[in-house]
Write a structure and sequence with these properties.
The protein has 926 residues and is of the alpha+beta class. Helix content is 46%, strand content 17%.
Length: 926
């Protein structure tokens, strides 16, 4: 019989072997679990160095209504302690043998630590943890035991050694507990980490410092999301870090404000303020400092389940979001949002609603730096590990709706939403200086729709234009805005600048366009010409540099062609400021314009046709210009005006009818050509000249007075009347009359200004339509400025329509007066149907009147002779009664008759300005 072979190991009885096997069986699963959780720690240290603190806070917060925490950092140890409720036996067992999912029936509803692996990760600080505290008797109230044991995981990659470690910890717990009194509020729970015993190649002190620094950054949010956390104190005994103390100071759920007290080295610091908003158990929050939103650090968690989910730093949500209903991933570093994670999806949707509340509150309260709340990045959305499409179609969409509706972007003191926001944006070659160059160039175009310069770069950095595609304001959009104004006058109104400053601004803008997208100058019309309005054209249009074009010659061309030659000439300021805008060969001189004028005569000559009335008017201006420029002998005329030189007399004479030819011969035979020429070249109007002709005998008397010296005669008369001294009362009368004269002159000046403005408006807006609708080649619009009418509109046959302009003061209630000459023309059967009164009430300040005001407010009264005939008859009776040939008759001295019309009555007869156009057309057709 063979003998049993004995193994070369320590001898154990069979009973001991049974017990050993039972222990291995019992502790194998916890040891295996420990090994599985401990082995990855060195490779995951990048995130675990920030997580350990929150795992400890989690354990301190579970089962506690309120808790204070202290973290003491010494040279070689780190001590975490809190004053929460004592341990339960199941808590102690889970620390020693982590083989359950904490499914004890005593677990509270708001229990944070759903997984037992969290505490194991704190071994990132040390392989050796000493646990001290009180444990509550399971069956007896107010009975507690103090205990202390070590959790030694130094040999973490050996299951056998881990089993031994578990046994050692259990033995220490079972043999060392003693009955103890529980003192609520005292720091009875303590975890001590030996910083000299790190796992593998870890450096515990660096891990400890990183975790503390991270905690200081994020604690204000934790206090906001975790109301049961009352204070956290960092005690630093090695001098490497500052001692910090945070504590809940106040909390107002109605206003959404959490204030956290803060001390550094026992010195009170300004309170930390966090604004938050809640929607169905979901909270979003931001830190506020000096009434400004604090930028959310890139390297801290976004998702919270009371405590930060370390690893959620890149989650695509613009603010921190917390919910106790989040279902986190196993390692609590994020959430899933697949079709099976409906609760997480709902929480995110509620988070957007809470975000809207927060945004509206901050905007209403005037909190600044709201650009820190809009960091929603498409690359982070696309990087979601599961179902980024759902996030885009729901959460991203909801954010777009919120930001398009909530007015929160401060633009020139007013808040606007993304739907109105215009943010200058250059897609390529970006740099801050180039962005600011573009901003400075275009910001005047979008005042009220763009943030101030200081904040602009922040908005530009934080807004993802691939999501908010309507927000970027590019160069082509700026060019289109300028083009749509059509001219400098309208651009000035848009920019709220005077025309000079507007032109300088446009020069800078055009230079920027040339340097950045030269083709836009050809595609769009933003180059101003020299016309009064500064009409815009593109670079390929018929536009030239002015190289000495004579202004008087321009007037000749304009009259003859009925168009503005200045529309062909580049604005002088633009020409000076923008180098090489036009090719060198695109210029005009006076001689090139002379050729264009001469071509008009050539066309008429080739067509054997007469000059039109406009062309004849241009011819008269040309003759005057030629004489003024030194062409009296016509020596150079064939060079610049070859066609005109050979045929100008024929053109002129052929345009005369028989009556006009007789007049020309009469003038020629009078021997007064030179004097009449000087009169024709003067600025005396036709109406004024007619007055002179109608009063020729008085004119001769005036000539005699001039010859003898009017001042001397007047002085002589005064001396004869008052040989000693002019009486003071007479001087008072003279002063009064002088004041009346000055007042009259002032009112006359105002009236004249209004009349000229009306002429410009009516000519620009209606005259072209009148010519077209009346089927005429041209009409002549004359401003008389006095006499029996102010304006005359005449067709080619001599048919005229007369307008008497009456402007009254702002808020007028006084009667409107007509001179007798105006009354006579109004009732004259020959003019009755062709005469009207134009009426406008002036603005308070005459400077505020413009073309738009005239078009909107001018009224006209057609055929006023219908209700003025009785006044005219009354006047005739008065005149007749004073003119009877009697030895004794009624004498009137300085009588000044006027026709007075009730203002309200006149308004009741008035019509709008558009009907004035119709009246003129009907008159000229008839």
């Amino acid at each position: 019989m063979k003998e049993d072979k004995v193994l070369d190991v320590e001898f154990k009885s069979f009973d001991d072997q049974i017990e050993e096997t039972e222990i291995e069986k019992k502790l194998s699963i916890p040891a295996k679990r420990l090994m599985e959780k401990l082995e990855p720690i060195p490779s995951k240290i990048e995130s675990l160095q920030y997580r350990w603190f929150w795992e400890l806070i989690q354990n301190a917060s579970d089962f506690n209504s309120e808790v204070d925490i202290e973290l003491e950092y010494k040279e070689n140890t780190l001590v975490f302690r809190h004053n929460g409720q004592p341990f339960k036996l199941v808590d102690v067992e889970n620390l020693i043998t982590p083989d359950s999912d904490k499914d004890d029936t005593d677990i509270d509803d708001d229990y944070i630590g759903r997984f037992g692996s969290g505490f194991i990760s704190t071994h990132a600080l040390s392989a050796l943890i000493t646990v001290e505290g009180l444990v509550k008797d399971k069956y007896r109230e107010n009975v507690y035991y103090s205990f202390e044991f070590d959790l030694d995981r130094n040999l973490y990659n050996s299951k056998t050694k881990l089993i031994d470690s578990i046994q050692t910890s259990e033995s220490q717990f079972k043999s060392n507990y003693i009955s103890s009194e529980h003192l609520p509020g005292s720091f009875e729970t303590k975890f001590t980490y030996d910083l000299t015993k790190g796992l593998s190649n870890l450096t515990p002190k660096e891990v400890a410092k990183s975790g503390i620094e991270y905690a200081v950054k994020i604690l204000p949010l934790v206090f906001t999301f975790l109301p049961k956390l009352k204070s956290v104190k960092f005690i630093q005994n090695d001098g490497s870090l500052k001692e910090s103390y945070f504590y809940q100071k106040s909390r107002n759920d109605q206003s959404g404000l959490c204030e956290i007290g803060y001390k550094i080295n026992s010195v009170a610091q300004p309170d930390i303020k966090v604004k938050y908003a809640v929607q169905d158990d979901v909270t979003v929050a931001v830190e506020i400092k000096d009434n400004l939103v604090v930028e959310y650090p890139e390297n801290i968690a976004v998702l919270f389940l009371y405590l930060p989910m370390i690893g959620s730093e890149k989650f695509p949500f613009p603010v921190s979001i917390n919910s106790q209903k989040f279902k986190p991933e196993i390692e609590r570093n994020g959430i899933n949002i697949s079709n099976n994670d409906i609760e997480n999806r709902n929480n995110l949707s509620n988070g957007v609603k809470a975000y809207q509340k927060l945004l509206e509150t901050l905007s209403k309260d005037g909190v600044g730096n709201l650009y820190n709340l809009v960091k929603l990045k498409s690359d982070r959305i696309k990087a979601l590990s599961n179902d980024s499409m759902w996030f885009q179609q729901n959460i991203e969409r909801d954010f777009k709706i919120v930001l398009d509706q909530v007015k929160f972007v401060n633009c020139s003191g007013e808040s606007i939403a993304y739907s109105e926001l215009k943010l200058p944006f250059i897609p390529e070659n970006k740099s801050e200086s180039k962005d600011l160059d573009f901003y400075d160039t275009v910001c005047d175009l979008i005042v009220g729709k763009v943030p101030g310069r200081v904040e602009y770069l922040k908005w530009l950095k934080n807004i993802d234009f691939t999501i908010f595609k309507q927000v970027p304001f590019r160069l082509d959009a700026a060019v289109k805005i300028v083009e749509d104004t059509k001219n400098l006058v309208q651009l000035s109104k848009l920019l709220k600048k005077n025309e000079q400053d507007t032109t300088k601004w446009l020069a800078v803008f055009i230079k920027y366009v040339m340097e950045n997208d030269n083709g836009l100058l050809t595609k769009h019309q933003i180059i101003p010409c020299k016309s009064e309005e500064g009409t815009f054209v593109n670079r390929d249009a018929e536009i030239y540099t002015d190289n000495g074009v004579d202004d008087d010659l321009i007037e000749v061309f304009n009259k003859m062609k009925n168009e503005n030659y200045r529309n062909k000439l580049l604005n002088d300021v633009i020409n000076e400021e923008v180098i090489d805008l036009l090719p060198l060969n695109k210029f005009k001189r006076w001689d090139s314009l002379a050729k264009e004028i001469d071509d008009i005569f050539r066309v008429r000559l080739d067509g054997n046709s007469k000059l039109s009335q406009n062309e004849l008017d241009g011819l008269r201006i040309l003759l005057k210009w030629l004489k003024g420029k030194g062409f009296p002998d016509w020596k150079e005329l064939p060079v610049y005006f070859p066609t005109f030189h050979g045929s100008y007399s024929n053109f002129f004479m052929e345009s005369f009818n028989e009556e006009e030819r007789v007049k020309a011969i009469t003038i020629r035979n009078s021997g007064k050509q030179d004097s009449l020429l000087r009169l024709a070249e003067s600025d005396v109007t036709e109406a004024e000249l007619n007055k002179v002709v109608d009063s020729i005998s008085e004119v001769k008397k005036i000539i005699s007075i001039i010859e003898y010296g009017a001042n001397l005669t007047q002085l002589k008369e005064l001396v004869e009347l008052f040989p000693n001294k002019i009486p003071s009362h007479l001087m008072d009368i003279a002063r009064e009359e002088g004041e009346k004269k000055r007042d009259f002159d002032t009112k006359s000046k105002i009236g004249s200004d209004v009349e000229k403005l009306f002429k410009a408006v009516f000519e620009k807006t209606y005259l072209g339509f009148i010519v077209e609708k009346a089927n005429l080649d041209v009409v002549n619009f004359v401003y008389a400025g006095g006499g029996s009418y102010d304006f005359r509109i005449t067709n080619s046959t001599g048919q005229s329509f007369f307008i008497e302009m009456k402007s009254v003061k702002h808020g007028n209630i006084d009667a409107v007066k007509l001179a007798m000459s105006q009354l006579e023309r109004a009732v004259d059967p020959k003019f009755k149907e062709h005469y009207c009164i134009a009426l406008i009430e002036r603005t308070k300040d005459i400077k505020d009147m413009d073309e738009e005001y005239i078009l909107k407010n001018l009224k006209f009264i057609p055929v006023p002779g219908l209700f003025l005939e009785s006044v005219y008859e009354d006047h005739k009776k008065v005149i007749e009664s004073t003119s009877r040939a009697k030895e004794a008759k009624l004498l009137m001295l300085n009588a000044d008759f006027r026709c007075s019309i009730d203002y309200e009555f006149l308004l009741s007869k008035s019509k709008l300005i558009d009907e004035l156009e119709t009246a003129v057309i009907n008159s000229l057709k008839g």
